[in-house]
Amino acid sequence: MPYSGVLNRYRSYLEIPVHTATVTLLEGDTPLIPMPRLVEALGGGFELWVKFEGLNPTGSFKDRGMTIAVGEATGRRVKAVICASTGNTAASAAAYAARAGMRCVVLIPQGKVAAGKLAGAIAYGAQVIQVEGSFDDALDLVIKISQKHPIALVNSLNPYRLEGQKTAAFEICDLLGSAPELLCLPVGNAGNITSYWMGFKQYHALKNTGLPQILGVQAAGSAPLVLGHPVDHPETVATAIRIGRPARGEQALQAAEESGGKIIAVSDDEILAMQRQLASEGVWVEPASAAGLAGLAAEARAGRKVPEGWRVVAICTGHGLKDPDIIARSMPSPTVLPPEFGALEEAIIRN
Fold it and tell me: For residues 87 and 90, what is the distance between their CA atoms, to the nearest angstrom?
């Protein structure tokens, strides 16, 4: 039977209204990619897989939740959806709204969204509005307008977003046969870490799959959950997690504590170094997606290595094509040669 998206595959596990319609782009079913060279670089002795959510239809994990949020709104015959976004939510909301034949409005913070993500929202037909302020300012506005007018809010404050996103935890357990001992992932608005913990707890209660420790990782310039207070002007190259007031912050801290894990911060340099290391094994992710593994590497450098025999899953939330600016700015110009065999041989064989 062909794969049919997270709603049809896991509907019986989702706490959603019966009116929720199927609005799918065949999201989910993303692979667990083994990373043996990275394991060796981190000291060896454990197994490591990347759950590459960048292979979802719009290039990020947001599609898992958006199929449910837009499907629920469709079932209520809502005609428009709205979100605030640093990029990935915008593209996903626009795509699923287009699939459902709905209007989509996206608010973005001024100058803080990667071009690849903004282009996606526009390509799918969203009305994009730039707010002279932060993501948090934009989120406050979309909350207020959705409370006053019949327009569905599809940020992660929408509980059906989390219901869809928790299916990634189900997939991990289905593929491995149980939960891994450790899950590491980036933390921005904190909906994803919250939804993973929801999913693992639910599957464990139903199927005795076990529970992982969770290592959540923020960028040092945007680390309110590590600092213990909001960050008014968050700054990081990892645009997807450049959020100073996480909407699901309390739930994220609770998830980390309940799992016996923690939330830490790493520098932009550590994030970009891990992005390059992942690419060296053939997995190109946007900078924010490398944060979870950057945190794992930071723990190893501090002497807190992964215990022998543990299975580790790292969540890489978005494809590198979503935010290619860092690579584009730093890449060297290609070598220019005349169309002659001798010149090519000199360049790649004799040098």
Answer: 5
What is the rounded distance in angstroms from the CA atom of residue 135 to the CA atom of residue 239? 11
Give CA–CA dist 325/128, Å, rounded. 20
For the chain, where do the domains classified as CATH 3.40.50.1100 start and end? 6-59+161-329, 62-158
Main-chain phi, psi angles of 57, to 5 degrees = -55, -40
CATH class of 62-158: alpha beta
Write the pLDDT tens digit of every residue in 164-195.
999 999 999 999 999 999 999 999 989 999 99
Q: How far apart (Å, rounded) are the C-alpha atoms in residues 190 and 193?
A: 6
Class of domain 6-59+161-329: alpha beta
Q: What pLDDT digit, counting tens, does each position of 39-74 carry?
A: 999 999 999 999 999 999 999 999 999 999 999 999
Say how many Å lie between the first and final Cα of the chain, rounded: 52
Q: What's the CA gap between 243 and 215, in Å, rounded?
A: 18
CA separation for the pair 40, 42 (Å, rounded) = 5
